[in-house]
Amino acid sequence: MQQRILFSNENKHILNTILKLAFPIIIANVLQTMYQLVDTFWLGRLSANAVASVSLSFPILFLVVSLGGGLTLAGTVIVAQHKGAGDQKMVNYASSQTVMVIFFISIILALIGYYSAGTLMNLIGAGEELMDDAVIYFQVSSWGYIFMFMFFVYQSLMRGIGNVIIPMYIVLGTVFLNLVLDPLFIFGYGPIPGYGVAGAAIASIFTQAISAAFGLYILFKGKRGIKIRLIHMSWDFKWVKNLFSLGLPASLDQSSRAAAMAAMVMLVTSFDSEIVAAYGVGARILSLVVVPALGLSIATTSLVGQNIGAGRLDRAERVGNIGMLIAAIGLSLLGIILFFLAEPLTRFFVPDDPHVIEVGSKFIKIMAPTFGLLGIQQVLNGVFNGAGLTKVSMLISVMVLWMARFPVAFMLSNNTSLSYEGIWWAFPISNAIAAMIAFMYYKRGSWKKIQPQLV
Question: Which residues cross the membrane (predicted)?
Fold first, then answer.
């Protein structure tokens, strides 16, 4: 009987819809992650210190991006619920307001990032041999926030209405461009000088500007399901307040993750630069694994939001159940693959340092068995976000990262013979705790009693 219910026509349709929506999102996110992976590849040809300096910058960059990124998620939720309710006028209005808010926030964050670079790198514990490269990389990257956020908000709005193909193609094109620009600006060629570590950031800014231009052009033309207008971008304080009420918890959620990453880096920097480089490679692999989990989470957010807007709570719950099943199976299989490929993957990024290869591959092997649990937690976050419960996702993240991952990493690395490997073990332990907490709240069913955010 349960098997017939699981494979009913409606559930098959939901399964196909999730996969159809999630696959282009996953591909787009994989391609966006390729920016960092390509940077790591070419910088590894400079030195292990070059990889380490960028690894120090990455958590802080992610922290600053997260402060605005939650508001783009709020745009996805609001647009999805208006789409489900069949209100195209409000879809367009909400999109215009979201673009306006994100644009101003991106300018503020770019200025903060540039002028606080040295202080932040000191705070995170950058050593003398890494400081200069870490600061210049961070400063140059900060100016790319404006372009990055404009493309992120375009992606988020398109995802809210279920249009995910064109953003994927835009990212694909810019990644191929980055493959050419990265070595060009890092090493130089002809009249173009080599900028070293800063060259990787310069290449990213060029590609981010192009993707932002394409995204805004599509939104203003209005031929892909959303049409934004300048006349709708004057401050609507009631609407902006609603955006912030949804977006700030999501921003704090993402920011708490980024801050936890920065805190973990501070633990890692108490060891030598080779351990920092190994952590950088492992963190890059983890960011690649998180991509399909986030893709399923975003697809779940969109579909749950649309179904709640349409008053179909039963279907919203089916979306959550099927999304969890996909994540558990798919991410577990990916974990098995990465477990056996850990050493060659680490060698690919840092080919000339045997100790970094050994330590980095062990980090990957320790994390890999719990990637399925990571996927379950991310899908359930998508359910809560789609229902407008962004505070729940935030609280789960804060509890798990700051009450589990960091304390466990600190205790094991400082008070046991595991040394730096204690930091590695904190990741699977916290993944298991996060999945358990999210699943328990999901089964309580409180998320189904929240009213749609139709403002």
Answer: 21-38, 58-79, 91-115, 135-154, 166-189, 195-220, 285-310, 322-342, 392-410, 422-442
**DSSP annotation of 225:** S
Say if residues 406 and 260 touch (Cβ distance below 8 Å): yes
Q: Exposed, middle or buried by CB within 10 Å (0-12, 13-18, 19+), for 56? A: buried
The string over 258-285, giving b where at least 16 C-beta atoms fall within 10 Å of a residue's C-beta and e elsewhere, is bbbbbbbbbbbbebebbbbbbbbbbbbb
Residue at 123 is within a domain: yes
Residue of 402, 70, 73 lying closest to 249 (CA atoms): 70
Query: What residue numbers bound the domain in which 111 lies?
Result: 2-449
In total, the chain counts a number of residues equal to 455
CB 211 within 8 A of CB 427: no
**Do 279 and 58 form a contact (C-beta atoms < 8 A)?**
no
Say if 372 falls within a structural domain. Answer: yes
pLDDT tens track, the chain, 455 positions? 444 445 577 778 888 888 888 888 888 877 776 777 777 778 777 777 777 777 777 767 777 777 777 778 888 888 888 888 888 898 899 899 999 999 998 898 889 888 888 888 887 776 777 787 788 888 888 888 899 899 989 988 998 888 888 888 998 888 888 888 888 888 888 778 778 888 888 888 999 899 999 999 999 998 888 999 999 988 888 888 888 888 888 777 777 776 777 788 888 888 877 788 888 888 878 877 888 888 899 889 888 888 888 778 888 899 999 999 999 999 999 999 999 998 888 888 777 778 888 888 999 999 999 999 999 999 999 899 888 888 888 888 888 888 888 899 999 988 888 888 899 999 999 999 999 999 999 998 888 776 655 55
Q: Are 364 and 285 in contact (CB under 8 A)?
A: yes
In a domain, 455, yes or no: no
List the one residue out of 365, 362, 367, 376 whose CA is nearest residue 328.
376
What amino acid occupies position 63? L
pTM comes to 0.74
Q: Which residues are CB-neighbours of 264 under 8 A, at least 6 positions away?
A: 59, 279, 405, 406, 409, 423, 426
Number of domains in the chain: 1
Judge contact between 297 and 379, C-beta under 8 A: yes
Residue 454 lies in a domain: no
* Residue ranges in 143-164 assigned as alpha helix (H): 145-160
Q: Is 112 helix (H, G, I), strand (E, B) or coil?
A: helix
Question: 369: closest CA among 337, 346, 344?
Answer: 337
